[in-house]
Amino acid sequence: MYLIFIGPPGVGKGTQAKRICDHFSIVHLSTGVILRDEISNNSPVGKSAKTFIDVGQLVPDDVLLKMMSGRLAQNDCNNGFCLDGFPRTITQAEGLERILTNLNQSLDAVVSIVADEEELINRLVLRGSTSGRTDDTPEIIRQRLRVYRRQTEPLIEFYEQQNLIKAVEGVGKITEITERILNTLV
Hints:
By secondary structure, this protein is α/β, with parallel strands linked by helices. It has a single domain (2-185), classed as P-loop containing nucleotide triphosphate hydrolases (Rossmann fold). The protein is 57% helix and 13% strand. The chain is built from 9 helices and 5 strands; from the N terminus they run βαβαααβαβαααβα. The chain has helices at residues 13-24, 31-40, 44-53, 61-72, 90-102, 117-131, 138-152, 154-160, 174-185, and strands at residues 2-6, 27-30, 81-84, 109-114, 165-169. The protein has a 5-stranded parallel sheet. The longest helix has 15 residues, at 117-131. The radius of gyration is 16 Å and the shape is globular. It starts with a strand and ends with a helix. The model has no long low-confidence stretch (mean pLDDT 93).
């Protein structure tokens, strides 16, 4: 099974992606983890990404796509994967399509987890108070939600046109949400 998980900050993408990966015995791929691995391994892609990260810039699409191309070509992805945090833009989604075509793979579904904005803000503020994360303040959270709406939300329409979107309500117990996702995937 080849999946993408998308949704706004605080909706539980990472938690649900891991649970679904465990259920289907597929690889959970988080771009943040892959980037950190590439940088710590001092790979050419990692070195390139580090030059942007070190000055507070986003890693450009071409560098991310090169990194993802190498990662998706690894043997552990042959039976499936779940992408968490990638793609974030239409350009990245188009690049991902080219990568998958080259690998003779195609997406089975794009799971879009949705929740009310106030619910997300409350969750993230609570997370910030318990985890010590400095980016979980109401002002920063609202800014992250605006960035998500502007950059990533267009992916929903992009994948709807391909009949891949599976929208799932992200409010409730973790196990209930996992069950909702599994029900949309069968």
